[in-house]
Design brief:
Elements lengths: L1 H6 L3 H13 L13 H8 L9 H22 L6 H21 L6 H20 L3 H17 L9 H17 L3 H25 L8 H22 L28 H9 L3 H12 L19 H17 L18 E2 L5 H7 L4 E2 H13 L3 H16 L4 H19 L1 H14 L10 H36 L7 H19 L9 H5 L5 H18 L6 H12 L1
Parallel strand pairs: 1-2
Helix pairs in contact: 2-4, 4-5, 4-6, 5-6, 5-7, 6-7, 7-8, 8-9, 8-10, 9-10, 10-12, 10-14, 12-13, 12-14, 12-15, 15-16, 15-17, 16-17, 17-19, 19-20, 19-22, 20-22, 22-23
């Protein structure tokens, strides 16, 4: 009954009325009462792990641990409180000790498997809130459990082992330990190859059912090997004075695939444009970056890694337009000819070696183009993707279009994009010293330009705030990329705060001083919109002072 309640997500009922009720015959104990496995064995397994009730006791302990974790998440979904983090770590430590005890009995391998599932579930949740460093050792232990149990080493559990291997690699990348991630991924590939050789020896000669399983594992792990090697092979050694001989990407736009070093690497390692595009997206994925806070991939203009980022985006645009993969063809780089519409995911396409990319992957790629300040790629794909999404009937994809529209509004006020646009304008219309205005006329013209820019900036901020406020009325926070909305709202709040702080001194004459602010009505309207968005996002649960100060300044 407890396992059934666990499946239907009735965690409190399963914990109180099933697991705790069964374990109460051993006494009232908390998970924190067990510092090592000897105490667990003395408390619950006095007759050894081969006893008649040992299996039921293991099931109850596993169920209690995972139910307790879910009850903690119900009150603190983002694991922000220190007490919640400590209790979660105690639960994971208890699960590790429990699986260590179960490994001594091969008949309990299915319970070891369940233990690794619980460790993975907790680890993925903690990774999603930025606590990968804390769960790394436990995911590594889950991999060791799968490799240490003979029944679990079979091909039947290879897909699950691969999932654990990938999780370990992602933890290393989150901790900025890419070298360890590549080493572990190569080790995992070697383990898969060993199992493949054993399977070829033991299975029937014409048995083709195992081929897709090994291919899926190889593709998933190969992406993580490529994710680091694509950068490390181009990294310039310190002190090396090697000249750069890379051609401009615009010069090879009309050439056939593969056109660059990255595209040749993709062509050699992966089959099908789906796998190639998935490798690009994973290579650009960095959980330490936030989409709204943009910055180039390589800060130094002479850094060869900057060329790698440019080539990755260059290849991604080509794959989206229908190029690359098995059916190499000349494509129109302004379209979305490679997008496959429907209820499909990119990973199954990549495993099968097919061509095409999914719409959700394209949306993620567009967000990355903004985050890495690839303005040319973003301008090329953003509006086209929005129009493509609006032509679909799926309501969930329309939310993706809303997020891209918000990024388009953010782009206009982005300082890096403004600098990029000025440089592009200077290239198109170069102005020399003789074209510059002088004297009083030049001064007045400059002042008029400054005023117009201020008015335009205010309008751009209101446009962004209006788009964000539209999310308040039509969507729930869980349906959108909430990080983008929160960062954009906080950015608008800093702009409003800087303006109102100059005139709001707490005196009774604040209204008179507020009239001296340029476009005062627009700033008040902007503040009102921002306050609604901050309240809708639930920022008060993280930083209540921000919401309180915005409400106070709005009331004044």
């Amino acid at each position: 009954m407890g396992d059934f309640l666990l499946q239907i997500k009735e965690y409190r009922m399963a914990l109180w009325h099933c697991y705790d009720l069964y374990l109460r015959k051993f006494g009232e104990h908390k998970l924190s009462d067990f510092p090592d496995i000897n105490v667990i064995q003395d408390t619950y397994f006095r007759f050894g792990v081969d006893g008649k009730d040992a299996e039921m006791t293991f099931r109850a302990l596993l169920g209690k641990a995972i139910s307790l974790f879910h009850t903690l998440c119900a009150s603190d979904i983002k694991i922000d409180q220190l007490t919640t983090v400590e209790q979660t770590m105690k639960i994971m430590n208890f699960l590790r000790m429990l699986t260590q005890i179960m490994l001594s009995n091969e008949k309990l391998c299915w319970l070891v498997y369940n233990g690794t599932v619980h460790l993975y579930t907790i680890s993925r949740h903690l990774m999603s809130v930025g606590r990968s460093a804390k769960v790394l050792e436990y995911v590594l232990w889950a991999c060791m459990c799968m490799e240490s149990s003979v029944p679990l080493v079979s091909i039947r559990y290879l897909d699950w082992r691969t999932t654990l291997y990938i999780t370990v690699c992602q933890c290393y990348f989150d901790c900025r330990a890419g070298s360890h991630a590549e080493i572990f991924a190569r080790r995992a590939v070697a383990k898969v190859n060993e199992l493949c050789q054993l399977e070829q020896i033991s299975s029937k000669p014409n048995d083709l059912t195992t081929v897709p399983v090994f291919k899926a594992a190889t593709v998933k792990l190969g992406i993580f090997v490529f994710r680091r090697s694509v950068f490390e092979t181009r990294r310039r050694l310190k002190g090396a004075m090697r000249p750069r001989t890379i051609k401009s990407l615009k010069d090879v736009t009309q050439s056939s695939w593969p056109r660059s070093i990255v595209e040749r690497s993709l062509n050699d390692v992966f089959e099908g444009s789906a796998a190639q595009f998935l490798a690009i997206v994973e290579s650009l994925n960095d959980t330490n970056r936030r989409v709204f806070i943009s910055s180039p991939g390589a800060t130094d203009a002479d850094d060869p890694l900057g060329d790698v980022y440019n080539e990755l985006f260059f290849a991604g645009v080509c794959l989206i337009s229908g190029g690359g993969g098995v059916g190499v063809q000349q494509t129109d780089l302004r379209g979305l000819g490679g997008v496959r519409v429907g209820d499909i995911e990119l990973l199954p396409l990549a495993v099968r070696g097919e061509d095409g990319v999914t719409l959700s992957a394209v949306v993620k790629f567009v967000k990355m183009a903004y985050n890495y300040e690839q303005w040319e790629v973003f301008d090329q794909l953003a509006e086209t993707t929005v129009q493509f999404i609006k032509a679909q009937t799926d309501a969930s994809s329309h939310r993706d279009a809303r997020m891209i529209e918000i990024l388009q509004a953010c782009q206009v006020i982005n300082m890096s994009f403004r600098k990029y646009r000025r440089l592009q304008a200077q290239k198109l219309n170069p102005v020399g010293p003789e074209g510059e205005a002088a004297g009083v006329e030049g001064t007045s013209a400059a002042s008029i330009t400054a005023v117009s820019r201020t008015i335009q900036l205010t309008d751009d901020l209101i446009h962004l705030a209006t788009l964000l406020h539209g999310c308040v009325k039509q969507c729930k926070p869980s349906q959108l990329d909430i990080d983008i909305i929160v960062d954009a709202a906080l950015y608008l709040w800093t702009k409003c705060k800087a303006v109102f702080a100059k005139v709001q001194t707490g005196s009774l004459e604040t209204t008179r001083y507020l009239q001296r602010v340029d476009n005062a009505s627009k700033w008040i309207h902007l503040m009102n919109l921002v306050h609604d968005v901050l309240t809708w996002c639930g920022v008060s649960t993280i930083d209540p002072t921000v919401v309180a100060e915005s409400a106070l300044r709005l009331s004044l």
